[in-house]
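Reading a protein record of the kind used here takes little practice once its layout is understood. An example of such a record is reproduced below.
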Amino acid sequence: MKTKVEDLSSVKKRLFVEIEPEDLEKRMNKFYSELRKRIRLKGFRPGKVPIKVLESRFGDMVKQDIIDDIIKDTLPEALKELNALPVGVRSFEYTKESLRRGEPFQYSVVIEVKPEIEVKDYLGIELEKPKIEITEEMVENELEKIKEMHGELVPISEQREIRNGDCVILNYQAFYKGRPLENLKKEEALIKVGSRDTHPLFEAGLVGLKKGDETTISVDFEENYPNPELAGKNIKFRVQILEINEMKLPELTDDFVKEKFKLNSLEELKEQIRKNLLEQEKKKVESELKKKMLDYLVDKVEMEIPEALVEEEVENMIEDFKMELRMGGSNIEAFGLTEEKLRVDFRPEAEKRVRQKLILAKIADNENIEVSEEELNDGIKNIADMTGKNPDEMKKLYEEQNLMDYLRIRLREQKTLNYLLQNAKITETQRENLDAHTDSD
């Protein structure tokens, strides 16, 4: 077997493979020897049909099968000539007519490979983070949420219009371009007007209505609305007001706290809230810093990315999105979406993710960052805890579905990000100063 490599780009190579006549002869004889075990021809005993007879009778019909076998057998060895990590096969070129005994058979294949990139100055990245302050207002907001969680709905006695703060029980059905969206249909839904638990325009459309009213509320969802199935669309909601309630809130006292939270006092509850808020803010700030680091590195490192990796990332994003919808009892068709539309919408983010992963992998290689078996088991345990499953069962599931390598890669990326964050030059500043600086950029 002879091979030759042609560079088409930094991530694309054309590999030429030539099977020499003697090797081709052996491979064709082997194929026809296997074939005659399955062929029955009149005048010949089973398994005894001469190869020449088979080739004369079936040669044109089985050429593609022979070529497929040749490529399957020879390509893995030929790929070693690339001196790069293959990530995708784009196209094959050959002619069936060139498959002749006594002559060499040639084929070529376009292979995408992982790009060789250079990442510099990734240690000591300068970052600004906001100073974390847990204010009394934040604590009071949490206390209000607790009161609402334990509040009692009391129907209003008079026939009056809905106003902010009311808890409304209603039926609604959403429509997009006149077509009902089955996953946006609910009966006896409870909505607190002004809470922004739903879209503000939807809640604003309820203000002024009375019990028994039926109307249609039109909502223009923003292009950057978090739910991509609604983003940029005009959705009309047909609503029927069933009941208007006021929320009767409990008074937060030491006795209430002892009963509901098994704590000694209201002050102890406040202290617990402060600790929880502090942890939440720390995680939020850490997430923001990691995002800034990745954005910095993606902007800094020039690279060409393989189409195969982008397509794989897009498909993963689509599957994640579809799974999320299925868990909510819906599907993409209910929102008038198609996989083709999602591929277009998800592509920019997929390209960004591929760049991030390649950069993190390169840094991990440079710094010899690996994931130990103990860290892998901890990762399994964390996933099990989040999903309420047994760690051993979760590990078995990951092994059965061949997801352990995928998990190891994700954990390695997180470990690398943590390493970069530990070695970054972080300056603490007031939140308003940081926001002003970001806006000016």
About this structure: The first helix runs from residue 21 to 36.
